[in-house]
Design a protein that fits this description.
The chain is mainly alpha-helical. It has 10 helices and 2 strands; from the N terminus they run αααββααααααα. The protein has a two-stranded antiparallel ribbon with strand order 1-2.
């Protein structure tokens, strides 16, 4: 296709496609974003010139210029006159603000963290029971079994690793990358609570948690979404109660225990 032949007209739709009109700049914007992902370009990375982008996405330079303007307005690209086009630095969203201002020994913030965990992880457990592949079920079961072995040995470090693996495996089994990424972030915040606010869990508590892991794994393996949801809710509630009690005991001993 020559440059002259590249059209600024709407992209043709396949026969029988009922999606209707799509402006060329929308298609170009989509293809540019795909290029960013496939090329592994991180914030601050420089993109090719407009003409080179046009060649790569198979559209005219005029259309690509419009697409770049849109992506710049959306905060995905940053255009510097005379310097080029760059992948934009992400704005400081309210979510990012919450992460950078998290106080792991603040009981109110810990309560908020576990409230969010409960809402999210009951959903991941339910979806995992519906969607998990045999290999993903195997990963969930393996992590639960690892937590049981660690609990029997009162090995807090090994249990912590198995606990991470278990909740990560549940999130992965939803086959939803957004849920998996969010669970990973929440786990990191919980590690801050453990490292700064708590010295660890008692051995008996480890065994209780491991038993709950095994029960949730069984519900996922047998495809029981409602049961998996209920079991995960109980598991998070139990963990929340324990964290709140320990924080009050060690950091704010003036507060009555739950």
């Amino acid at each position: 296709m020559t440059r002259a032949a590249r059209s600024t007209a709407p992209t043709p739709q396949p026969p029988g496609d009922a999606t209707g009109y799509r402006p060329g700049y929308e298609v170009a914007a989509e293809r540019i974003l795909e290029h960013l992902i496939l090329a592994g370009l991180e914030p601050g990375a420089r993109l090719p010139t407009e003409q080179e982008l046009a060649d790569r996405v198979g559209m005219s330079r005029t259309v690509v210029r419009e697409a770049v303007k849109i992506l710049s307005a959306l905060g995905r690209l940053s255009v510097h006159k005379g310097r080029g086009i760059y992948v934009a630095q992400p704005d400081q969203s309210s979510w990012q603000h919450s992460l950078t201002h998290f106080l792991p020994a603040d009981l109110h913030q810990v309560d908020e963290l576990f409230e969010f965990r409960r809402h999210l992880e009951t959903t991941t457990a339910r979806l995992a029971a519906q969607r998990a592949t045999p290999a993903q079920v195997g990963a969930v079961r393996s992590a639960a079994q690892q937590s049981t072995r660690a609990a029997r040995q009162d090995d807090i470090d090994a249990f912590s690793r198995a606990d991470d693996a278990f909740h990560t495996a549940i999130a992965t089994a939803t086959n939803n990358s957004f849920l998996a990424a969010t669970i990973d972030t929440l786990r990191r915040l919980q590690h801050q609570v453990t490292a700064i606010g708590l010295a660890g869990l008692a051995g008996g508590s480890l065994r209780d948690a491991a038993a709950q892991h095994e029960a949730i794994a069984d519900a996922v393996a047998t495809g029981e979404p409602a049961h998996a949801h209920t079991l995960m809710a109980r598991h998070i509630d139990r963990t929340t109660h324990q964290f709140r009690r320990e924080i009050r005991h060690r950091i704010a001993p003036g507060h009555p225990n739950d």
